[in-house]
Amino acid sequence: MNLPGLPSPYILLAAGVALVLSTFTGYMYGAKHERTAQIAERQAERLRMADASVKLIEATNAKVREIERESASRSADTSAEYQRKLKEKEHEKDRAVAAVRAGMRSMFVNVTPGSCTNDVPGPSPALGGRDGSGRAELSGAAAEFLIGEASRADKLAEQLTACQARVAQDFELCGSN
After folding, report:
1. Where are the domains of the chain?
2. Which of 15, 154, 155, 175 has the fewest CB atoms found within 10 Å of its own CB?
3. What is the DSSP string of 22-85?
4. Contacts 24+ apart (CB under 8 A), 65-68
5. What's the CA gap between 171 and 150, in Å, rounded?
6. pLDDT, tens digit (0-9, with 9 covering 90-100), for 101-155
7. Cα torsion at 14, 15, 20, 25 (round to 10°)?
8. What is the C-alpha to C-alpha distance for residues 134 and 72, in angstroms, rounded to an integer?
């Protein structure tokens, strides 16, 4: 039963189905496009955050490298000063030992009468002090030994001073940053 001028009901039904499908397809396309835009926005935000992180890491690495360069420079200066002082102490020891060997320098110890158990006569009254003590000259070998030990103690003191300076420099560098 077709009425004149009216399309067939199947055509209307097909047109209705086409309209519904077209609306659904448009909605799905728009939803997909919106989801794609959201994903792209999230990815762009992650890229911005990653770029900011890379810049922060690069700045931090540059700062650490600068601190390391400063530390190495200070360490080299401290080491050079320490080596110079060790050579100076060694030269002082060598001069003192040479003077003892040449007889230009002598080392003495204070002694009191009766402090020796052997039959060595006590010091003469002219060499003695007010309390009756006197002085005895050390042998060359004993003097050289004592000079060597004093030099070794001086070197240890210089080493300790250099270590303290190095620790203070590191503390200053790390504490100031």
Report:
1. 9-36+71-175
2. 175
3. HHHHHHHHHHHHHHHHHHHHHHHHHHHHHHHHHHHHHHHHHHHHHHHHHHHHHHHHHHHHHHHH
4. 67/173, 67/174, 67/177
5. 31
6. 898 888 888 887 665 555 555 545 445 555 556 888 888 888 899 999 999 999 9
7. 100
8. 54
